[in-house]
Specification:
Elements (H helix, E strand, L loop, with lengths): L3 H17 L3 E2 L5 E2 L1 E6 L15 E5 L2 E6 L10 H12 L6 E6 L15 E6 L3 E7 L23 E9 L2 H12 L3 E5 L9 H7 L10 E7 L5 E7 L7 H10 L3 E4 L17 E8 L5 E3 L7 E4 L7 E4 L12 E6 L2 H8 L2 E5 L5 E3 L1
Parallel strand pairs: 13-14
Antiparallel strand pairs: 1-2, 3-4, 3-9, 4-5, 6-7, 6-10, 7-8, 8-9, 11-12, 12-18, 13-16, 14-15, 14-19, 16-17, 17-18, 19-20
């Protein structure tokens, strides 16, 4: 007779199997469909100084900014939780992983490859793609999780999405356009037929036959729709003004690393791109975007609800670099980012208050 005890044992086994699935994780270590992190800068415009390790967090089950009680350099952080799966199991022959960054740990920046940063980790069931903006991150798997001291000063962003196995075939095609600077990866033999593109990227292959851009739809494990814009080095233009805004048919407010050579707000095309100039946080503090190394944009209109998070800056040199953005019309993500925009520069380069 099948008793209550046996049922409880089977239930616990089933739950442990679900929990063992590779996925994005929340700060409790539970599997989730996606999360977004905004690492706060060390310096804030109102005169206060932070640790450079604090961050805002939201996910598919908690859809508004929360000020995390953890710091991003700990394994209890959302980023730490998700990457622990890789660090604990990277040497197994039944999983695929790829870690790429144009500025790898302890290495000077690479300008030959894409201006792009991220981590893939999956098995034949599912896994995650984490896109971020932090140079020299993450550490090599054998070194364990950590966060670089160079990543403290400026604001940074990260987005993690859980995908089923078949979506990684599409992601692999997108990464041909990204041309990532891979510094650690593994594609075991059992995956090399279906994931041959990832295998070739791992080996440092070149793909001169690709087009200038590729846009695709990616569906998360729970069916949420994301668009991925992938730009190759053959697309010599600003990804925001020349492509994303025009394709999404909306004016965009753009946050990216600012420098003396930053491209000005662009109103030359049907849909305009405006540089964000000042950010306001849920903590009531504000900072100038000079202190922000994150790369994201939101539609100016509250009706369009577009938010894109990714790799490239509005900088003349990066019109020749490859990279991409993941975009969503999730209203909670849009509201969280849109509400942070305090000022932007209009087409005459004048600061304009929202």
């Amino acid at each position: 007779m099948f008793g209550l005890y046996q049922f409880a044992v089977l239930y616990l086994i089933a739950m442990s199997m679900v929990a063992a699935e590779i996925s994005c994780r929340n700060e409790a270590g539970d599997p989730i469909d996606w999360f977004v992190v905004y690492k706060l800068p060390m310096l804030k415009m109102n005169g206060s100084t932070g640790s450079g390790l604090d961050y805002l967090y939201m996910d598919s089950t908690n859809q508004e900014w929360q000020i995390s009680k953890f710091q991003i350099n700990t394994t209890k952080s959302a980023v730490g939780q998700v990457l622990q799966q890789l660090y604990q199991d990277y040497d197994k022959n039944n999983t695929v992983y790829m870690i790429y960054n144009d500025a790898p740990p302890n290495v000077t920046n690479s300008t030959r490859k894409g201006h792009t940063k991220g981590i893939l980790f999956f098995d034949n069931s599912q896994g995650f793609w984490l896109i971020h903006s932090v140079p020299h991150f993450p550490p090599y798997p054998e070194d364990g999780y950590g966060y670089p001291s160079t990543g403290k000063r400026f604001g940074q962003t990260a987005i993690c999405v859980t995908y089923q196995y078949n979506e990684f075939k599409e992601i692999a095609t997108q990464l041909l356009y990204y041309n990532p600077n891979v510094y650690n990866c593994s594609v075991p033999d059992i995956y090399q037929k279906e994931m041959w593109m990832l295998h070739k990227i791992c080996l440092g292959g070149h793909f001169p036959w690709i087009d200038s851009t590729r846009l695709t739809q990616l569906n998360s494990a729970r069916g949420e729709v994301f668009l991925n814009f992938a730009k190759s080095k053959y697309f010599i233009d600003d990804i925001f003004a020349a492509w994303i805004a025009q394709k999404l048919r909306t004016n965009m407010l753009v946050e990216s690393w600012q420098s003396r050579q930053q491209l000005s707000s662009n109103c030359s095309l049907q849909y305009h791109v405006y540089n964000i100039n000042r950010i306001g946080l849920p903590t009531q503090s504000t900072f100038q975007t000079f202190y922000d190394h994150s790369k994201w944009c939101v539609s100016q209109s509250n009706e369009d609800l577009w938010t894109c998070i990714g790799d490239l800056n509005r900088h003349p040199a990066q019109t020749r670099r490859s990279g991409g953005f993941i975009c969503t019309q999730n209203k909670h993500i849009y509201t969280a980012f849109r509400n942070m925009v305090l000022y932007y520069k209009n087409c005459t380069d004048t600061e304009y208050k929202i």
